[in-house]
Write a structure and sequence with these properties.
Layout (H helix, E strand, L loop, with lengths): L2 H6 L11 H6 L11 H8 L6 H13 L3 H12 L20 H11 L4 H4 L2 H12 L11 H4 L2 H6 L1 H16 L8 H12 L4 H12 L5 H13 L3 H13 L2 H13 L2
Length: 258
């Protein structure tokens, strides 16, 4: 049995399994996962290891809220294409790397163990590092949905920077590898429960330069998540640029706030 099979191909009762996700996810209720942490850190950092095994070790450690791995995520975000597993997993829609999307899911999943491990601060830093990649790396429509309100508050400056930077790239007509406009709007929507006016400002900075049907459809989320005069005006704007489906959703959202 290989080291990888011992660490992630075996359940916590010692039985073989092909369900690696189950091993990773069940750790939140099984303290025996701690026994595997040193081995997984060794595997993740092994330059001779395969990209697949190193990446899955990283996912496990991140989900388990381990400090060494939050630090690994932060390092990876500083040099995305330099990570040993970059392009190991490819998104089918855009044919681009999807490993950072999966790491974002793992950082989100760490919430079950982060207090126990005392790594809340590192978790926040990891999310902020990932946010800073939102104009260059694809997150499969996930990043904006994964960030809780407390993390959004901590990452407001990062979100403002990356959305504005991305909007400038769109305005300049730079070639995009994926649907950047929609990804940025999703981040703007994540801000809505925390700062409605800023959320609208960021959303409009994107829609002014790129308002595809898909991007406009995602922007409706903002109207559902916040209230106020700025949101009312934003909803009225979506009524003028959206299709019938968007208009119906916007009317529903605005109706809830009245």
């Amino acid at each position: 049995m290989t080291q990888f099979e011992e660490l992630l191909g075996t359940d916590f009762d010692g039985g073989p399994t092909t369900d690696i996700d189950d091993v990773i996810d069940s750790a939140s209720e099984d303290p025996r996962h701690r026994e595997r942490v040193p081995g997984l850190i060794e595997l993740m950092n092994d330059p001779a290891g395969s990209a697949k095994e190193r990446f899955l070790a990283c996912l496990a450690l991140t989900t388990w809220a381990e400090p060494a791995d939050f630090e690994a995520v932060i390092r990876a975000a500083s040099d995305p294409e330099g990570t040993p597993w970059y392009d190991f997993s490819i998104d089918r829609k855009f044919s681009v790397d999807s490993t950072f999307s999966q790491l974002a899911v793992a950082v989100d999943g760490s919430r079950y163990l982060v207090e126990e491990k005392g790594t809340a601060g590192l978790r926040e830093q990891a999310f902020r590092a990932l946010v800073q990649l939102a104009d260059s790396q694809y997150f499969e429509d996930r990043l904006g949905e994964l960030i809780d309100s407390a993390t959004v508050r901590a990452a407001l400056d990062d979100i403002k920077d990356v959305v504005r930077r991305g909007a400038r790239s769109l305005a300049a007509g730079e070639k995009q590898r994926f649907d950047l406009a929609t990804q940025l709007v999703d981040l703007a929507c994540a801000v809505a429960p925390v700062d409605a006016a800023l959320s609208v400002e960021l959303g409009m900075s994107v829609l002014r330069v790129s308002a595809s049907p898909r991007t406009v459809d995602h922007a409706v989320t903002l109207v559902f998540r916040a209230e106020g005069p700025e949101v009312q005006q934003f909803g009225e704007y979506l009524l003028t640029v959206g299709d019938e489906g968007v208009r119906a959703e916007v009317r529903e959202a605005l109706g809830r706030s009245q």
